[in-house]
Design a protein that fits this description.
Number of helices: 14
Helix content: 25-40%
Shape: globular
Number of strands: 14
Order of helices and strands: EEHEHEHEEHHEHHHEEEHEHEHHHHEE
């Protein structure tokens, strides 16, 4: 016998402005940023002293001290310390997966409320010792006598042998941008189309700030009141002057149509309708369903199995299970890791052969209405702190649906190592 699922609702969200790496948040940490995002959520939704079902969080770029990041962060807030926490990580999909985790627990009746959150900083990277130096230090520590310790110390490598984190995939040694350049070229993605995506992202984000849409979604932090990657007054002419940064001298990917390394944190409050009512809160949107997927980016065809192509398959499966078409949405929140990735996804969904042979569909999934895409700005404008993007997107979409008063939204997030997470939200 299976129990009836309980609807899980997004009740609100809060994040700090996202900042370019090695900039405004140079002296901040994952914990300090995530604490700020959670404190803003606590203040906005009256969560001080509240026992929540669970707080799920995570970060991709972690120092050893961050092994229990979410728990340590919660202890820096006024949320009841009896609230359990869990850390999750799925590269760029980390924030999305924390939302799915909390929503699933609510739906299964295990908890009535929870927070999904995440942070990342590339300004505070986990630079460690390489295997030679690390191994020798361990041997020195394990030596039983002073003589043995001195003997092992004499074998220390002359170099520092530092282990510096890299965005390169371990299996291919390619950074995501270089890999996407190959995929984008295979799909015939053009420079002009990528620059149009970038321009719309910045234009829409600027308007969202100017219209006050983000006033109850963003808490000022460390001197920033808005994302400092945002470029107001951007034009296609300005974008066209930028040199390629991936794909060689004839490449089409630039610093503007590719996301930059970014620091930041975000949080999302979820709960049941009854819990919301008991706390005087109004549900914004319901988490309908979610789907993860992965592709063989190591040995697969970079066109159909490129490292950032997993959302193409995940969305197809998600829509099939919910008997929906790609056009059945009022808003599309697609993570703009690279404009090239977004356009490769669109090309695949509209390709008859790909849809037939790879997705098992008789017809192409078709086009989307671009006017409904990332209408308050995407990752190209906001930036992309790996663990925080999912929370930013979920809270934004929930508010859009609440403001409209009806409708449905699609979330699609690509992630490193050929993974993804996708979700469907409906207005509450």
């Amino acid at each position: 016998m299976s129990a009836q699922l309980t609807p899980a609702y997004v009740l609100g969200g809060n994040r700090i402005p996202f900042a370019r790496s090695n900039g405004k948040y140079l002296d901040e940490t994952n914990q300090s940023m995530l604490t700020a995002a959670l404190n803003g959520l606590v203040a906005r939704y009256g969560l001080s002293g509240e026992h929540l079902g669970e707080v799920a969080g995570g970060a991709v770029v972690k120092l050893a001290r961050d092994h229990s990041l979410t728990r340590e962060t919660l202890l820096d807030t006024t949320i009841a310390r009896t609230t359990p926490t869990v850390d999750l990580q799925q590269q760029c999909a980390t924030g999305g997966q924390t939302v799915v985790h909390i929503a699933n627990k609510i739906s299964c009746g295990q908890i009535e409320s929870g927070v999904a959150c995440g942070a990342d900083t590339t300004s505070d990277p986990p630079i460690g010792f390489g295997p030679r130096l690390r191994g020798q230090l361990v041997r020195i520590n394990a030596a039983r006598s002073t003589a043995d310790r001195l003997k092992e110390a004499a074998r220390l490598p002359l170099s520092l042998d530092l282990d510096i984190p890299s965005p390169s995939e371990r299996r291919t040694d390619l950074v995501p941008g270089a890999a996407q350049a190959v995929t984008g070229q295979a799909w015939g993605v053009t420079r002009a189309d990528q620059d149009e995506i970038a321009l719309a992202s910045h234009t829409n984000l600027a308007k969202a700030y100017d219209d006050g849409f983000l006033v109850d979604l963003v808490t000022p932090f460390a001197g920033l009141t808005e994302d400092d990657n945002l470029r107001r007054g951007l034009t296609m002419e300005k974008l066209s002057t930028l040199r390629p940064c991936f794909g060689g001298p004839d490449g089409t990917m630039t610093a503007a149509n590719s996301t930059t390394l970014t620091d930041g944190a975000s949080s999302v409050l979820l709960g049941t309708a009854d819990w919301a009512a008991d706390h005087g809160l109004t549900p914004l949107a319901r988490i309908v369903d979610a789907q993860s997927w992965a592709v063989d980016y190591v040995d697969g065809d970079p066109k159909t199995q490129g490292v950032l192509m997993a959302p193409v398959y995940a969305v197809s499966e998600l829509l099939r299970r919910n008997d929906l078409t790609l056009q059945d949405f009022d808003f599309y929140e697609i993570h703009e890791a690279f404009a090239s990735q977004v356009l490769s996804t669109f090309a695949a969904w509209n390709d008859p052969d790909f849809c037939r042979t790879r997705l098992g569909r008789d017809e192409p999934m078709g086009e989307i209405d671009r006017s409904r895409l990332n209408v308050t700005g995407g990752s190209l404008a906001t930036g992309h702190p790996f663990g925080a993007t999912g929370g930013r997107i979920t809270a934004t979409l929930a508010k859009l649906l609440q403001a409209k008063g009806s409708g449905r939204g699609l979330i699609s997030i690509c992630a490193g190592s050929g993974m993804s997470v996708t979700m469907i939200l409906e207005a509450a």
